[in-house]
């Protein structure tokens, strides 16, 4: 119903641009994780431990690409945050937890608050383990013992890259298949 009410500009320009943006962000995050996997294999310093140097904030860039890289890291972390929340509420186990307009009981509100708190607390460790950022805002997340275990970090990165690529290929190929079937169905 929302698609039918959308203006032609939204349908023909807005939705495709949004999809291209999501594909680009997903592809960039997978490329960064693959680069991090190569770093893990070649250099022990790529492990997501605490910051070794005594660099003051603002004096040394935490990104290879400078200001552009830092902005890209912020955008990717926001993208990962939104996609993890959407994925959480899309899973069959937690669809009942979705709030309802003016009809949400207090226990469901508390459950949503707890879920969002857990997801937001895991985000810095998640982005640091994937190699998206090396910055420890106020918490020293590099002190977790398991962040020094090569096998856990390596398998975590490989799992993220593999599963994200699989989901991306599956989603894109299904969309292309549906369009081909629709186009061939109209002609035949």
TrEMBL record:
BP GO annotations: receptor-mediated endocytosis; Wnt signaling pathway
Gene Ontology molecular-function annotations: transmembrane signaling receptor activity
Subcellular location: Cell membrane; Endoplasmic reticulum membrane
Keyword Aminoacyl-tRNA synthetase: no
One Gene Ontology CC term in the entry: endoplasmic reticulum membrane
Topology term for the membrane: Multi-pass membrane protein
UniProt keyword terms in alphabetical order: Cell membrane, Endocytosis, Endoplasmic reticulum, Membrane, Receptor, Transmembrane, Transmembrane helix, Wnt signaling pathway
TM spans (from-to): 12-38, 64-89, 109-126, 146-169
InterPro entries: LIMR, LMBR1-like_membr_prot
Pfam families in the record: LMBR1
Family label: Belongs to the LIMR family.
PANTHER family listed in its UniProt record: LIPOCALIN-1 INTERACTING MEMBRANE RECEPTOR LIMR (PTHR12625), PROTEIN LMBR1L (PTHR12625:SF2)
Protein name (database record): LMBRL protein
Species: Corythaixoides concolor (Grey go-away-bird)
